[in-house]
């Protein structure tokens, strides 16, 4: 009775039909949860909708600021490189 699902089990021994695939998916799920918990504003299961929206907004704002800083430093570095290559 194999449906192609990750958690399909053998009828006789009750073992997983694809144990490597199952363990990979469990590891991915755990990794995603760890990444979510490392956010500044961790969204708890008991939070209401407004609180979730605010926390999601501030988490996204944090990442936007992070990437903007990286972009700014790369731009300045490239600008300095181009200015140093100009004869003068």
Short description:
This protein has helices spanning 19-37, 49-85. The chain has 88 residues and is mostly helical.
Question: Characteristics of this structure?
Answer:
single chain, 88 residues, mainly alpha, 2 helices, elongated
Helical fraction equals 55-70%
Hey, roughly how much beta strand do the residues contain? Answer: under 5%
Number of strands: 0
Distance between the termini: 77 Å
Main sheet summary = none
Given helix and strand content, the structural type is: mainly alpha
> What is the overall number of helices?
2
Radius of gyration: 24 Å
Number of domains: 2
What is the N-to-C order of secondary-structure elements (H for helix, E for strand)? HH
Mass-distribution shape: elongated
Uncertain segments of ≥5 residues (pLDDT<50)?
none
Name the average pLDDT. Answer: 85
Protein model, in words:
This protein has 88 residues and is mainly α. It has two domains: 1-38; 40-88. It has two helices and no strands. The longest helix is centred in the last third of the chain and has 37 residues, at 49-85. It is elongated and about 80 Å long. It starts with 18 loop residues before the first helix and ends with a helix. The mean pLDDT is 85.
């Amino acid at each position: 009775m194999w449906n192609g699902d990750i958690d399909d089990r053998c009828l006789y021994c009750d073992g997983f039909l694809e144990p490597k695939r199952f363990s990979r998916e469990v590891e991915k799920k755990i990794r995603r949860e760890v990444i979510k918990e490392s956010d500044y504003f961790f969204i708890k299961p008991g939070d209401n909708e407004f609180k979730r929206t605010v926390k999601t907004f501030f988490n996204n704002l944090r990442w936007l600021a992070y990437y903007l800083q990286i972009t700014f430093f790369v731009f300045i570095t490239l600008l300095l490189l181009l200015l140093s290559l100009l004869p003068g």
